Amino acid sequence: MVKRKPIFLSVLAVGAMVSVLSVGSLLSKLPGPWSAPDRASQIEAGENESSSVLAYVDLPAKERAEILAETAKGSKSIDRHRARYLLATDLIAQDRGGQALPLLDGLEKSYPVLEAQILAKRAQAQAATGDATEAEKTWKALIKQHPDDPATAEALFQLGRKDSKYWDQALEKFPAHPRSLEIVQARLEKDSKQPQLLLLLARHGIHLDGIIPVLNRLKKDYADQLKPEDWEAIAFAFWENAYYGSAGDAYAKAPPSALNLYRAARGAQLGERYQDAEQGYRALIQAFPNEKETGMALLRLADLADKPEEAISLLDQAIERFPEQAAEALLAKSKILQKQNSPQLALQIRQSVLEKYGNSEAAAKIRWEQAELLQQQGDLNGAWAWAKQIVEQNPDDELAPMAAFWAGKWATQLNQQTQAQEFFQHTLSRYPDSYYAWRSAALLGWDVGDFSTLRQKIPQVTKVGQRVTLPAGSEALQELYRLGQDRDAWTLWQVEFTNRLKPTVAEQFTDGLLRLSMDDHLNGIFMLSSLAWRETPEEQAEYKALKQQIGYWQALYPFPYMETIEQWAQQRQLNPMLVIALIRQESRFEPEIESSAGALGLMQVMPETGDWVAKQIGLQNYSLTNPVDNINLGTWYLDYTHREYTNNSMLAVASYNAGPGSVADWIKKYGLEDPDRFVEEIPFPETRGYVESVLGNYWNYLRLYNPEVSQKLAAVSSEHAAVIKNSQP
């Protein structure tokens, strides 16, 4: 399982997405099946429908220079302004500031949405020519004319190199700006004993590599100087970096809200300080008896209880006082009674869950347990009936795609072919992004690859979308993002995004897209995918609307390192879409990520495995954090696991995760008469989830980027059809 690299993660993260949407420019260069649509199809909607410039923002500077230069000479238009700005920015990056200055001359008057940014670019261009005097004048003009614009932080930073008062202004006015964080770090290097600067990092530098030592220093050296609000900031930073035990300690000293008390207790529990956890949960229950966190606290306390009768008493309180927790509490109570040799009472309680809370997650669990039990006993009719109940009464539950698929499988085994077809069609229609949709498509005879044929396929791929319009942020931020000025957009967002604890759906979606644009795929994908956790009807409606945008899905399933992947996949005779699907699961495209077991890089290669593979292929000097080396070694090993299991991709993927020895043992134990059943019976939950995730990733890349499969799916799924419709220019 991939561990997220925290960068200002939202409060939604209670445990534990190469530039976003730049696939078109990348795929256009790839040989073989990789292709891109005509550039004109990648243009924004609305006022941007006729924009030729936006179609080129993801191209390298050298490739777009000529067309932008021609556009910059044209008549006055938004395209002309955009072309001038992009050309100037490219020239400055190439240290050709003198050529950039004429393009920027007077541009702020005709392109006011980026007025502050244009002044900043002019100052950078002047500095690049060696004209420090003019650059200083422009920086000061920017401060005077746009004192509240985040672009001014760059002026304060540059001027502060000579006069520290400007740095003081930057820290006071723009504490979250990346330049301000640079200032703090520079000052701490000179004098580390500055708690207020350490606190600024704790509040705004959660993404920094060295943030944990900063937080620990605050706890150790300045505890007596910290206010409750300071502890809350420290706690949030610890929590977002997955240091839950330390977070619990800090939350215990934060202002006593229901959430803070819950996290204090939960952090203690995760840190295995069970007595502190119990005391914390009880303090929460007493201080905030009616808050939703209290319902969760009662369930946690029941888990910690030493005696069954004590656990049942706590669960009864949750059942009586918190209807939203009642079904889960009843299910937990039934499990205790089952262990206490009271099967009849346990059965009655489960029946009450089905009767009173039939659409709950707990009810879906009960139904699936019954379906599995009857299947094991050979009663396929009974298993089918219970699975059908989930499809009908729990259609939004995470178990529903699996239940719908297995209802089809069991109907097939019962020679009910019509019903089987209906359930497979339903799985595709209702859950088009699921692993079980791929399995349903395969069993319906679609040309999407099966366990034994997946390796050899080379799917055609076409990018069909474009950069979406950011739903949150200023007009300047949105324009910078449209122009592909991702670092400038990200910098601006750090100042504008002040609602990090409880972001709106629009803010979280914007944050996810901007993280992706900065190659932070791990956290970007997390921010977008975790939108599914929203609870209120209004938020769920916003999330469902986002899911109808092709940009949402292409952001979730991007194509970083595709040239390298295609190169090594071709050499190893592997389906390149399978390789990218595996990389997405292994590392979320983070080249330097390391697992708790020591696996490194994009394909999470263990050092000893890397050494062994390197000897096989004669590779002497390599680095597992180098994308080319890692994909070279990882694809060789994936080819090896395929060869070990006669090119069965399911077994090869399972072996990649758990090792060939484990898979061999499972084959002996379970057999391969029904490979779908084999997947469900994999005794390692991590490996079972891994296989379904990798092959589910493969299916999502296929349905989003392969025109034939996408159109075929749209014919049976209104949800996918809406996505495809919204992707049309």
Automatic annotation (TrEMBL):
Record bears the keyword Disulfide bond: no
PROSITE patterns: TRANSGLYCOSYLASE (PS00922)
InterPro entries (UniProt xref): Lysozyme-like_dom_sf, Lytic_TGlycosylase_superhlx_U, TPR-like_helical_dom_sf, TPR_rpt, Transglyc_AS, Transglycosylase_SLT_dom_1
A GO MF term: peptidoglycan lytic transglycosylase activity
Ranges for domain Transglycosylase SLT: 564-673
Gene Ontology CC annotations of this record: membrane; periplasmic space
Any Pfam family the entry gives: TPR_16
Alphabetical GO biological process terms: peptidoglycan metabolic process
Keywords, alphabetical: Signal
Keyword Signal in annotation: yes
PANTHER family, per database record: SOLUBLE LYTIC MUREIN TRANSGLYCOSYLASE (PTHR37423:SF5), SOLUBLE LYTIC MUREIN TRANSGLYCOSYLASE-RELATED (PTHR37423)
Family note: Belongs to the transglycosylase Slt family.
UniProt protein name: Transglycosylase SLT domain-containing protein
